[in-house]
Design brief:
The complex is a heterodimer of chains A (336) and B (382).
Chain A (H helix, E strand, L loop, with lengths): L1 H10 L1 H7 L3 H8 L2 E6 L7 E2 L5 E2 L1 H14 L5 E6 L4 H6 L5 E2 L7 H6 L2 E3 L4 E3 L1 E6 L13 E6 L4 H11 L4 E6 L2 H10 L4 E5 H10 L6 E3 L7 E3 L2 E3 L3 H20 L15 H7 L5 H5 L5 H8 L3 H8 L29
Parallel strand pairs in A: 1-4, 1-5, 9-10, 9-11
Antiparallel strand pairs in A: 2-3, 6-14, 7-13, 8-11, 8-12
Chain B lengths: L6 H33 L30 H34 L4 H15 L3 H15 L7 E4 L2 E4 L2 E4 L1 E2 L3 H31 L5 H19 L6 E2 L2 E3 L2 E3 L2 E3 L1 H28 L2 H9 L4 H31 L11 H12 L2 H30 L5
Antiparallel strand pairs in B: 1-2, 2-3, 3-8, 4-5, 6-7
Helix pairs in contact in B: 2-3, 2-7, 2-10, 3-7, 4-7, 5-6, 7-9, 8-9, 9-11, 10-11
Classes of the chains: A alpha/beta (336), B alpha+beta (382).
């Protein structure tokens, strides 16, 4: 797969140079959005029993598709491993990467990517067995720790243990499933990844009560979708599709009540929903793009709650992922 | 005759043209990729080699920590790949020859057992076998605190096998030197033995003498050196054992998987080699009154080896290349570490080229050695 993509990077490069003009036009002509997601992370992106992709990251793809086509189902999902994801984006296999990827300086600069707004503020944590009596990270001195390859976690882990003069043995797997199987079987004393990922895995375990997620967090992991560097038109579309989710929550617009808001007198909401025209044209989209997102996918609150929040098996708190006015970090620029 | 009507000249022209075409294609790919990478703002080049790697590696033959450079991390990977390949190849050949001989045994159950082994092992994908051995290891063996202790100082748990290690003493160095000395001595004794036999027809038991020296010289040095024998025993400390040497379950599973898989193929190669020697050869050798082990070592094997070596080389190469499946079961081989490096630096093309280059050099070196060995064993025509 990886080799294939690199070959694609080599061979299709001429085609690339020509089509570079506009990702948005290519997508419109193709009539489907190609979205890269995780190959299986409960709550974020995983196929359901009917084989339909579901989750937080998937809903971001659906929101973008709703903005572009007015149809959230016009998405072609590509399941990518942590290893493959950036190469897939670079080589043009996918249009947008929505795969719980951490926004970092190196990735932003040397991978030829641009990161869209952060959709989920996360941090790296640890899951341990209750019977081991571990209550803080310092108790893990000398432990074997399972983790997945191709993530920022390997680096954070080494940094943190080194700074705190702790020792550990990394056991690094290529696939996430193998990481968790090995942890459950006892090959490792702890497993580490982002807290959201740990919650997702814990929800899938046979007896989740035998495990605890330590409250300490060793890193900042702002998870954000990414697009290729150099196409600002497409970058703007992705950026504002995400901001629209937050703005809708701020206005209190949900998928259920969005139609009522069409009769609103609030000029801000009129502009947002495209009753007052302008925003759509500026982005190269239909004027009803924001309306379509909210009507078809929902606002940020709805997406959060149904996939990872209280209504889901993950039961994550909003915490710093609340809107700015509720004490969180999500803050959308004004839609004017 | 015109210049291009000469067959030789035409051949040269054709070859030149195709060479130019291939080179132009390569140049096109290179410049095109470079331009596109630049346009997309993707970093290129090997400057990242000297940057700090930042990640830890679970097992290493050389000193390594997360503050070392990427280059050193990659070296650790190369050495880990070499470790599993070299040990794996040696064990696979030994096991393969043994099973191949069993397969031809006149003992019916033994032959059938060997056949069953070969057919089962070589018909299951290697990756599956690796998962199987790894799962078996982590599933069956107890946790580290309930580690099995079959012998004093030896512990078995799902963290691997812990063994006592010998405390280093300068006497061991001299013992090592004596072994090398004995091997050189053995070579000269062999030449002397041949000379004696050529001149007088008498046999000089050079093997016996070499083995005796090999056994007693190091022992003598050890006794004179004051019989140093101090063990560093593994002790349970917190989450894991400290002291002694530990062999990780990842290494054991990978080695086991590779050795068993490859040995099944080698066994078939050995069988075909032995069967290719005509029966008359054995009968003739026996008629000359040679003992049965001499029949095997002087008549059958030298002829069988000629058939065995070329396909055996392929199997040795396969084992080395297959070791790159290590990443599935968390053994830090070269591909595993190159993958992590690729992810952290984003320089996929450079690292994939590096992976290709490293495996190509391993394979070419193995081929070179085996071709030399093949030539040595080949039929000497007079």
């Amino acid at each position: 797969m990886k080799i294939l993509m690199i070959t694609a990077l080599l061979a299709t490069s001429t085609a690339f140079a020509e089509s570079k003009s506009s990702t948005l036009n290519t997508i419109k002509e193709r009539k489907v959005l190609k979205c890269g997601v995780s190959s299986g992370l409960a709550g974020f992106s995983a196929p359901n029993s009917k084989g339909k992709w579901q989750g937080f990251d998937v809903d971001i793809c659906r929101a973008i598709a709703a903005a572009v086509f007015g149809d959230p189902d016009k998405v072609q999902y590509t399941a990518l491993s942590a290893q493959q994801r950036f190469v897939a984006l670079q080589s043009g296999e996918i249009d947008v990467l929505s795969r719980n990827s951490t926004f970092t300086l190196t990735r932003d600069t040397s991978l030829g990517l641009n990161f869209a707004p952060v959709v989920y503020y996360d941090g790296q944590g640890f899951m341990v067995r209750k019977k081991d009596g571990v209550s803080k990270i310092a108790d893990l001195n000398g432990a074997s720790i399972c983790t997945q390859q191709g993530t920022t976690t390997e680096l954070n882990l080494a940094d943190y243990f080194r700074t705190n003069n702790l020792k550990f043995k990394p056991v690094v797997f290529e696939s996430n499933d193998e990481v968790h199987q090995s942890f459950v079987k006892g090959r490792c004393d702890a497993v580490t990844t982002d807290i959201s990922g740990l919650a997702a895995q814990k929800s899938k375990l046979k007896n989740p009560d035998d495990y605890i997620i330590l409250s300490e967090i060793i890193s900042k992991e702002p998870l954000a979708p990414a697009v290729r560097h150099g196409d600002d038109v497409w970058f703007d579309v992705v950026k504002y599709s995400i901001y629209a989710l937050m703005t809708a929550e701020e206005f209190g617009i949900t998928s259920d009540n969005v139609d009522k808001f069409l009769k609103t007198k609030n000029p801000k909401i009129k502009r947002f929903l495209g009753i007052t025209k302008g925003n759509g044209k500026a982005l190269g989209l239909d004027e009803k793009w924001a309306y379509n997102i909210i009507k078809m996918v929902g606002n940020y609150h709805e997406i959060f709650e149904r996939n990872v929040g209280k209504q889901s098996p993950l039961k994550l708190e909003r915490g710093i992922n609340a809107l700015w006015k509720n004490g969180g970090l999500h803050y959308s620029p004004p839609f004017k | 005759m015109r210049f291009w009507n000469d067959r030789k000249n035409r051949a040269i022209i054709y070859q030149l043209l195709s060479l130019i075409a291939v080179m132009a294609l390569g140049l096109f790919f290179y410049s095109n990729t470079k331009a596109n990478l630049e346009k997309q703002n993707i970093a290129t080049g090997f400057h990242f080699f000297n940057r700090v790697a930042g990640f830890e590696i679970s097992e290493s033959l050389i000193e390594y920590n997360s503050e070392d450079s990427y280059l050193r991390a990659l070296k650790v990977g190369v050495l880990n790949t070499l470790k599993v390949s070299i040990i794996g190849n040696i064990l696979a050949v030994i096991l393969g020859v043994f099973i191949g001989v069993c397969r031809l045994s006149k003992n019916w159950p033994l032959a059938k057992l060997a056949q069953g082994y070969i057919e089962t092992i070589r018909n299951i994908p290697l990756l599956l076998q690796l998962f199987f051995w790894y799962a078996l290891f982590t599933e069956i063996l107890p946790g580290v605190r309930q580690a099995l202790n079959p012998m004093p100082g030896v512990y078995l748990s799902n963290r691997g096998v812990m063994l006592p290690s010998l405390e280093y003493n300068p006497v061991f160095f001299y013992m090592g030197v004596s072994v090398i000395f004995t091997i050189i001595l053995g070579y000269f004794l062999k030449r002397y033995a041949k000379k004696v036999q050529d001149q007088s027809g008498k046999q000089f038991p050079h093997v016996l003498y070499t083995v005796l020296v090999l056994l007693f010289l190091p022992l003598l040095i050890w006794l004179v050196g004051g019989m140093p024998l101090e063990f560093n025993l593994p002790k349970l400390q917190g989450f894991n054992f400290s002291g002694g040497v530990s062999i990780s379950p990842e290494f054991i599973s990978l080695l086991l998987g590779l050795v068993l898989y490859t040995s099944a193929f080698i066994a078939e190669i050995v069988r075909s080699g032995i069967q290719s020697v005509k029966k008359g050869q054995e009968e003739a050798a026996k008629a000359l009154g040679l003992k049965s082990y001499l029949v095997l070592t002087l008549v059958i094997l030298p002829q069988a080896l000629r058939v065995i070596i070329p396909p055996l080389t392929s199997q040795l190469l396969n084992l080395t290349k297959n070791s790159s499946l290590a990443v599935a079961i968390a053994y830090p081989d070269f591909v595993n570490i190159a993958n992590t490096t690729m992810n952290q630096t984003g320089q996929a093309i450079e690292l994939i080229s590096l992976i290709i280059l490293v495996y190509l050099s391993f394979s070419l070196l193995t081929s070179l050695f085996m071709n030399w060995f093949n030539k040595k064993m080949a039929l000497v025509e007079r």
